[in-house]
């Protein structure tokens, strides 16, 4: 019998996931969405093998169900459909916060596995019309399994990561994930919007280079999504912002002091930290 | 007689400029540098038609001299070589601060023109070995001419901008340039180093996405260059940082308050500002 892989939510990430998974290990990819325009677009563009608005029917008999909804949507879906997953089913998600999702997944009956998942990819756009199969290429694929998650399910998720082109699979706890993502992702979005709050924003057109475009690219964010992500991880994010404000204030003082040698020493220290990170930068000139 | 275009300083920007100008309107492109390894590399890779360490000889009889040195190097060069430019010569530069450079250029004798210039391009690397002819493609080309700059020299600079692939030419005053660049460029670099000062930096490897790479790309900066740029524009930069710290603090309060509706409204306001900017983002997935 054909295996069934259900992607719930055909937005930017869910749509890209469905496209990237086409033909994966013989699964039939079924996409679920509540929006008629999204379903129509997905059907016309072959985003999945089948698309439907009937979540209950799609989940029935599914081997894997991946929830690609906004955080609150995931929490609600788990609660509403908890008794419709077949025994042995693997439920997973793509959400940028993990503690709240893993806690909500406790409602699933015994025999239904849950592995938290966060493919670290995205663009500044939303919606299925911006989805593309190459979305996850070279991104990190983070997994937060339960202690009881089966080796078979973990192995399946690792093969899935390889299939969609991720550069590596990182396994961690929901707590560690959320503490680090407050810094590497959520804070970057707060920086971007804060920079755009400057009264000079519109006057600067014609004077921006790649550093400005790189820093503010994500400011035109999906408000509903990011309100939930920030709120569900508020203590960690507030802590990161306090550290950042302290570090910015220290640079403000170093610049204001007029002591060039001290400023140079401080810059050398920070620049060296970045070099040690040896991160492949996005090619901003491409 | 062959016209002579001298590029002083064959670093990342000067080297790229020489490469991009090859064959421009029949000029012979002469590159000047004090570093033997730089001269050797430039010679072996044909970065200019001719390279030399003798600045005085290069400047003699030059029709255009472009100073692609660090800010202090430009100030020193103008002072040292002020009497060696031929009458009618156009002197220009590529520096990221303009008031200090324009003031220093007052030392030039009558008949030697100066047009301040800032091609808004760069990468996170330094040195001639990272130079490439496409560096300036689609970037803004900012000019701060003197009131007395000749139409012929302005026209020459505009043709140069077109030749190296800039998307537009923006003409302004040194004061406006420096006030805006404190925001669009210098502050982006302070943000990048401040983010890297976070104690969590090294623990975050494996958890960074394109927003983190985009924001911190420029943190591994050229310490000498940026110390000078920050110092020569300190009042404007400090003002921008105060505004940013205020905007970040407002977001910190909005996240900490737990009032999701207020946070969403604030995010919607900022995101809408970014959308109104309609900036072509660098393709971080390329």
Q: Domains counted in the coordinates of chain A: how many? A: 2
Strand order of the largest sheet of chain A: 3-2-1-4-5-6-7-8
Oligomer state of the chains in this structure: homodimer
Query: Mean pLDDT of chain A, as a whole number?
Result: 95
Order of helical and strand elements of chain A: EHEHEHEHEHEEHEHHHHH
- The residue fraction in helices of chain A comes out at 40-55%
Instruction: Give a count of the beta strands of chain A, DSSP E runs of length 2 or more.
Output: 8
* Overall CATH class of the largest domain in chain A: Alpha Beta
Report how far the terminal alpha carbons of chain A are from each other: 46 Å
Which two chains touch over the largest interface?
Answer: A-B, 101 and 101 residues
Question: Might you state the CATH topology name of the largest domain in chain A?
Answer: Rossmann fold
């Amino acid at each position: 019998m054909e295996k069934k892989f259900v992607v719930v939510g055909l937005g930017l990430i869910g749509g890209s996931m469905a496209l990237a998974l086409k033909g994966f290990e013989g699964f039939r990819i079924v996409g679920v969405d509540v929006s008629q325009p999204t379903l129509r677009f997905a059907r016309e563009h072959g985003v999945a093998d089948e698309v439907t608005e009937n979540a209950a029917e799609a989940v029935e008999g599914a081997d894997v169900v991946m929830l690609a909804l906004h955080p609150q949507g995931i929490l609600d879906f788990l609660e509403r459909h908890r008794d419709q997953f077949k025994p042995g089913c693997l439920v997973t998600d793509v959400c940028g916060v993990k503690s709240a999702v893993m806690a909500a997944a406790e409602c699933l009956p015994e025999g239904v596995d849950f592995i938290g998942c966060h493919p670290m990819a995205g663009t500044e756009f939303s919606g299925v019309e911006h989805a593309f199969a190459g979305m996850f290429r070279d991104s990190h694929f983070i997994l937060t399994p339960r202690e009881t998650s089966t080796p078979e399910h973990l192995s399946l998720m690792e093969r899935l990561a390889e299939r969609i082109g991720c550069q590596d699979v990182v396994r961690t706890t929901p707590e560690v994930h959320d503490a680090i993502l407050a810094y590497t992702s959520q804070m970057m979005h707060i920086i971007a919007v804060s920079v755009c709050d400057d009264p000079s924003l519109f006057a600067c057109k014609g004077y921006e280079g790649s550093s400005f475009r790189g820093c503010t690219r994500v400011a035109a964010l999906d408000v509903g999504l990011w309100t939930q992500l920030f709120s569900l991880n508020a203590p960690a994010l507030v802590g990161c912002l306090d550290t950042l404000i302290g570090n910015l204030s220290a640079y403000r003082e170093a610049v204001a002091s007029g002591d060039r040698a001290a400023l140079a020493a401080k810059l050398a220290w920070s620049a060296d930290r970045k070099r040690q990170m040896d991160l492949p930068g996005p090619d901003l000139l491409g």
